[in-house]
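A brief tutorial aside. Many learners find it easier to grasp structure tokens once they have seen a single protein encoded end to end. The record that follows does exactly this for AAA domain-domain-containing protein. Read the sequence first, then the structure, and try to relate runs of similar tokens to stretches of the chain.
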Amino acid sequence: MLQYTYDMMAENHPIYNTMQSFEQERARIYEQIDAGKLDFGAHRRGKELLAKITRLKQAIAQDVLADADVICTTCLSAAGSRILGQIDFPIVFLDEASMATEPLSLIPFMKGVSGSISCRPACADRCLKSSQVAIIGDHKQLPPVITSDAAKFGGLSMSLFERLVHEQYLKDSTVMLDTQYRMHPSIAAFASKQFYNSELKNGTTSVITGKPLKKFDPPVSKYLTTTSGEKRNVMFVDHDSVEMSSDDKSTVNYGEAQQGHWYHRAVCGSNSTTHCLSSRG
């Protein structure tokens, strides 16, 4: 992936070495000025070099961006980057939108929406329809991380994604991806019933038999076998470990982690054919 980063593509640009030579010459000039070996008349040459460097950087950025079909960035970098300041985007995809605060979500739209984005909730649909925008997320999963009680009270704990879903301003443009491909149907059943009104479908079953695919069979373990010998895919483990605060103000539960690690090894350790994560570390 490194080859697709902006820095790497800029370094491979035909005029990058010329720009670097100007930067090195400029650095030498100011080192000599500071050492008293050149008078301040050399500042003129330094300013000339800076102007050339700036023009070359802009030319490199224009070429790299113009040659890209897709540009990936964080929400903050979309507005704070001088490189991206040269370009607007006809289409904006905001992924994991349910984990971003509403102000953070609005930043990339400034690069793709023609017109004002500072709109009232009642006109959110008209503002967003002025450009091609896809907001992708799942408000049933993790919300934005807000540590300030005042910010939570002010509404920042609700993402723009969730607000638009609840208030139905974009009801006709909302699509639910209703098929999961990651887990055994018995594991997905709880989430489907609890969060998705039993609308979640399974892409992990055979189109012929309707039964779960073989690769989703549970590993052989006494912890995943009922007293009647029936295999199960879900196991609940109760523990009394206490959650505590760590130095960086987040919370940790060492006992819970140890329990999870132990059961992971117990279930996966005796199953050489089972696709389990490594228990090392």
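Self-check: The CA atoms of residues 10 and 64 lie 7 Å apart. If you spotted this yourself, you are ready for the next section.
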